């Protein structure tokens, strides 16, 4: 068990302390931002519950909570796109994490076939432009 | 108005189309991951409602929805830590955005006094280590 119960912790304990005491939302989730450990690029945003966060720390491979399937999601278990976690970081109020990962398999992470889920940029008028290549 | 109503759009329109048609959650929000446009580093994770997203596109400065204050939040309006948006990207299912920004003022973004909100990394056992300097 690597997570600390926030009950009884002060604001200072949470914001600058040395214990991982994450704040999950009403659904028991927090957002996880997954970045490429080498390039820093944001690959995807997903969600973790306590179990997913603990499994990620224990195994060194990214686990999320699939909101659509309602189950623990070991990323890459079927696609081969396992994410080896080089570093896990948490923010000041401990309600979001950043994973720095090395994607395995074909190096992708997005079900549409791109290397990242953020393959489109938005112009001021709401036009989207795809500026990445499919894998 | 730069946002497109998702009603009537197909999965393909949303996932690979050229219209910004974001999916907001039950609270009318989506997560925004803010990164440094030059280094790629993740600075913060906040939330946007439709108004915040439109204001961000229109003005070129990051606007969020403050969940704690329950109001539109023009980042830096009081702190000077305005974020000039160089690029806004959206993911495949259009329920998360990435901003690439140039932070103004003292170059920080975190209320605790660090350049990024993710100034601590977590070890396997849940120990947090601060590895950034305060501004």
UniProtKB/TrEMBL annotation, chains A, B:
Keywords (A to Z) from UniProt: Amino-acid biosynthesis, Cytoplasm, Histidine biosynthesis, Hydrolase, Magnesium, Metal-binding, Zinc
Positions that bind Zn(2+): 92, 110, 117
Record-linked HAMAP family: HisI (MF_01021)
Organism listed in the record: Pacificispira spongiicola
Underlying gene: hisI
Protein family (similarity comment): In the C-terminal section; belongs to the PRA-PH family. In the N-terminal section; belongs to the PRA-CH family.
Subcellular location: Cytoplasm
Start and end residues of each Phosphoribosyl-AMP cyclohydrolase domain: 44-119
GO MF terms, alphabetically ordered: magnesium ion binding; phosphoribosyl-AMP cyclohydrolase activity; phosphoribosyl-ATP diphosphatase activity; zinc ion binding
Keyword Cytoplasm listed: yes
Binding site for Mg(2+): 91, 93, 95
Enzyme Commission no: 3.5.4.19
InterPro entries found in the cross-reference section: PRA-CH, PRib_AMP_CycHydrolase_dom, PRib_AMP_CycHydrolase_sf
Protein name as catalogued: Phosphoribosyl-AMP cyclohydrolase
GO annotations of cellular component type: cytoplasm
Role description: Catalyzes the hydrolysis of the adenine ring of phosphoribosyl-AMP.
UniProt remark on cofactor binding: Binds 1 zinc ion per subunit. Binds 1 Mg(2+) ion per subunit.
Pathway note: Amino-acid biosynthesis; L-histidine biosynthesis; L-histidine from 5-phospho-alpha-D-ribose 1-diphosphate: step 2/9; Amino-acid biosynthesis; L-histidine biosynthesis; L-histidine from 5-phospho-alpha-D-ribose 1-diphosphate: step 3/9
Single GO BP term: L-histidine biosynthetic process
SUPFAM superfamilies on file: HisI-like (SSF141734)
Subunit architecture: Homodimer.
One Pfam family it belongs to: PRA-CH
């Amino acid at each position: 068990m690597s997570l600390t119960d926030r009950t009884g912790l002060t604001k200072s304990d949470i914001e600058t302390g040395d214990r991982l005491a994450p704040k999950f939302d009403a659904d028991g989730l927090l957002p996880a931002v997954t970045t490429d450990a080498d390039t820093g690029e944001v690959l995807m945003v997903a969600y973790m519950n306590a179990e997913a966060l603990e499994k990620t720390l224990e195994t060194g491979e990214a686990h999320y909570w699939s909101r659509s399937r309602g189950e623990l999601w070991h990323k890459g278990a079927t696609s081969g796109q396992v994410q080896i976690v080089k570093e896990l970081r948490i923010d000041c109020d401990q309600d979001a994490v950043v994973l720095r990962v090395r994607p395995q398999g074909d190096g992708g992470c997005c079900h549409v076939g791109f290397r990242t889920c953020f393959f489109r940029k938005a112009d001021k008028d709401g036009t989207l432009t795809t500026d990445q290549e499919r894998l």
